[in-house]
Amino acid sequence: MNEYDFNKINDxxxxxxxxxLLSRVEGARIERxxxxxxxxxxxxxxxxxxxxxxxxxKHWAKSGFNALLNHLKKNEFRKIQALSIKRYILATSVExxxxxxxxxxxxxxxxxxxxxxxxxxxxxxxxxxxxxxxxERHYKLWISSSNVLKLLLNNAIVGRSNFKISEISEFLxxxxxxxxxxxARKKIEELHSLxxxxxxxxxxxxxxxxxxxxxxxxxxxxxxxxxSISEAEDRYELGxxxxxxxxxxxxxxYLLALNRHEDSQVVDFIKRVRKDKSKRFVLTSRSTxxxxxxxxxxxxxxxxxxxNEYEIAIKSIQDIEKARILYNHIWFGNLGEExxxxxxxxxxxxxxxxxxxxxxxxxxxxxDAYKISGISKHNxxxxxxxxxxxxxxxxxHVFDNQLDEKSRMMVCLxxxxxxxxxxxxxxxxxxxxxxxxxxxxxxxxxxDFYSVLKVAVGAVIDRKMTSSGSVVNYDLFNxxxxxxxxxxxxxxINSVFKIVSSLNTISSIANINSMRNGGVFSEGFVIDLVxxxxxxxxxxxxxxxxxxxxxxxxxxxxxxxCPNEIIKQYISKFVRDISINDINESxxxxxxxxxxxxxxxxxxxxxxxxxxxxxxxxxxxVSDHGDFVALGDLIYRLNEPYVENYERKIIDMAVEYWSEIxxxxxxxxxxxxxxxxxxxxxxASGVVWDxxxxxxxxxxxKFTDDDxxxxxxxxxVSSIIEDNRSNARWSEDESExxxxxxxxxxxxxxxxxxxxxxx
Length: 759
Fold this sequence. Notes:
It contains 39 helices and 13 strands. It is α/β, with parallel strands linked by helices.
């Protein structure tokens, strides 16, 4: 038999459930009274002889039978007497034995006509089994039932996805279904993919979590992506129900994702999922980061993402929805009664609900007993108001008062890294920063890395292990931590320099530009930081010990900085000092791009360099489209004899490269998605021709028609068209979403008071 955890729903939800079930039992429409001070009446109907029957619901699962019985004797019986009724029905979430029912019947005699009018937990479960349509309407109860929980555990891949399901399930009681949920569910059913956007703290991840949970309960396997979209390709199984979840898919740093070509891979995967009825794909991103992506990536523009085809933007929550979120956090939270009382004084909850800075994350923060440790009940309301007025300072109390100096250094390293950092890299960076700070302040700040880390993990840093279990990564527990720390250090060039120079990670370099674009750092601040970093490299010989890091730094600087004369000198020296032996497959593109950008900015003169060794070595290392773009651009800027010696070789290599990937590229790009008929082969081949021509035009090298034709001939157009016909035959067989009723906006103020009313 299916068992239910009534602790997952609040008292108002239990009341609604009981009335729905007993309406079916009695075969009558039970009048439902608004939540609040009910005078002993939650529901009412009239029997065949027109006598009034009263229903009362008591959600006392946590309190137990003895507390319930005492309450019925001392409080409820008096209310029933005042109603002058003949029949009283009680529904409770407490488990009741036969003797328990007899005791209740005696306590409420003569109004309880029969012990069968007393419904305990087991009786409610029996009715749910009988009236399954009622179960489906009460989603949170259904999804937390024993049958569904077994399904949840059986439909997650091992490791992080299994842990993620536990996290999502744990938060379920606090979750409130809003219009955003209904809109998101409708969109993902239609398109199979969904990008949830919004500002920090608005509830993007929470909504995505619950959308995933719904699908898992319907038999989908959860594939939670930790670092890259490539993980989804590795786990993709044809014909198997799977939902892929990529939270914060562009990270805190869009440029880092762009450097990994994450944008193109995401777009390709969205298109693949759209054709597969057994797959769903959920992504989240901060609005500011996604908008940056739309500006910088043509792929997002071309694939309609900027026209919101796949996007749900969480912008507003109705007041009654805000009220339910606050109520759930209080009901299911760990606040002491003395703190809850402060929220109820003079109906102060209205001030919270209607505050212009209301976001669910702040509600979670101000109702968390751990976060308010050290604050007395008398100062609690002032703390709430300060938090709402200055949401950026939400984590200030934790960062400034609950962490020591060494723990704060650890947090700063994670923040300025701009994304998850491995335990190995964090350990090295921490020791670098501790050593530098100890020397500067003439203090002994040495401390065991793991002891210091233990303080920060759980409070502001999250520890995650990769699915393989081989690497431990650390990231921010909450993005708002980063907002606070960055704002705090936005004018402190000395501290920022020490942190960034201690990190020695590529992501921290890309993060500098992200902070500049986001307005956290001024242009002058970034210029000063770049000069200090160049000086640091030259002083400590970083070029020899960490070439990849140094090269990425110069690559990033030449991309976004308008250099002054000092920076130009550093860039010029870098290019001149690079040895041909330093060039490899991983840095070829970056170095050639640095050379081209430096030439365009008149930092170097190409005529002063001999590029023959570079081109000769590059001929054996070109591995992808980006390499061809970089080499083509350099050839374009050079005169003979480089063009004569190397242009044809590059063309031949490009033809070979494209001949191998053309069919997969055409499928991924979707340029033939609208072709279904065998007679379309000729026109489809023309589309492929245009697709290849557009791609190789980026190389700025002249390809002949024979070159292009040899590439196009390697694309099996007929096979792609046949696949399109097969995909077109698919029809969705998913059941209609259970949904939730539309939310009325009438009399919200009164409804909020009823919600928060206490017996």
